[in-house]
Write a structure and sequence with these properties.
three-stranded mixed beta sheet
């Protein structure tokens, strides 16, 4: 079951105020400067595309002092609990700069009658930045290392009752699993080889009937690994990843290219900018 609900957060407060990943500084070592009006236009175009594709979009207001709240994939992990109720496991962000974001998502969930759960361990967890659903196979892929602690996946396995496949991330440029792995359903995935250790890459190769490698250049310059699948046929992705786009088209996917250049200055693109929930 593919979700049809999307949660986004308005980017009025978006800027690069600190550096917590390799993308947030320019070549001179200065924080990237964001063109906020341009960022808002890019965000609105993505929101309107989701609506056009039949998704039900909800929007959280921007919060002063929380510039990265716009990356709504990170603050929680959506699932359906044992009683069949839409639920969220709330994140514990690694960076103190981002930790206050979580409370706003908890409040939103309560208003929308979504059950929330808290982490039982002392480790960190960054939601669907690292815990990815394969909606068709009903299994979860869990990235760990840079941001998320491996022990949190025991609780996710317990809460969901679904298989969890653990993948260690070994390159700081791919600090979340959603930057380097895209699950398309029907045993198809696209992934960035350099992000994984030998064990993880070997698992991906044997687990999926079709595994396509995303060129490193496109992963770094076009955030191709952060593309988003909406059902079996629709892909939303940052423009310019020509080889990845061609490989997707050969498999029969309809590609919707968007511009997220302002958000890439903070290390995020399409997948980061939304939360698919039940």
């Amino acid at each position: 079951m593919w979700p049809v609900k999307v949660l986004m957060a308005h980017p009025a407060e978006f800027q690069v105020s600190y550096s917590i990943n390799p993308y947030m500084k320019d070549e001179a070592g200065n924080l990237n400067q964001v063109d906020v009006p341009k960022a808002i236009k890019q965000w609105e175009a993505l929101r309107d595309l989701f609506t056009h594709l039949g998704m039900a979009v909800q929007v959280l207001d921007a919060v002063p002092g929380l510039p990265d709240m716009v990356f709504t994939a990170n603050q929680s992990f959506p699932f359906v609990n044992a009683e069949g109720r839409p639920s969220l496991l709330m994140s514990r962000m690694k960076s103190p700069f981002r930790q206050p974001e979580v409370e706003h998502f908890r409040t939103w969930a309560m208003k929308n009658k979504i059950q929330t759960y808290e982490l039982k361990t002392s480790g960190n967890f960054e939601g669907m930045g690292d815990a990815l659903w394969d909606y068709e196979a009903q299994e979860i892929f869990g990235g760990f290392g840079p941001r998320t602690s491996v022990e949190v996946y025991d609780q996710i396995r317990e809460l969901t009752g679904k298989p969890v496949h653990l993948l260690k991330l070994v390159d700081e440029r791919f600090y979340h699993l959603d930057t380097c792995l895209c699950l398309l359903g029907n045993s198809i995935a696209f992934a960035v080889r350099e992000a994984f250790d030998e064990e993880g890459w070997s698992f991906l190769r044997t687990h999926f009937q079709t595994l396509k490698e995303i060129p490193l250049k496109e992963a770094l310059e076009n955030f191709a690994g952060n593309m988003l699948a909406l059902g079996r046929q629709q892909i939303v992705m940052q423009s310019g990843a020509h080889q990845t786009k061609a490989n997707l088209e050969k498999l029969g996917y309809q590609i919707h290219e968007v511009e997220t250049s302002e958000f890439m200055k903070s290390g995020g693109s399409v997948f980061c900018m939304k939360l698919l929930y039940f």
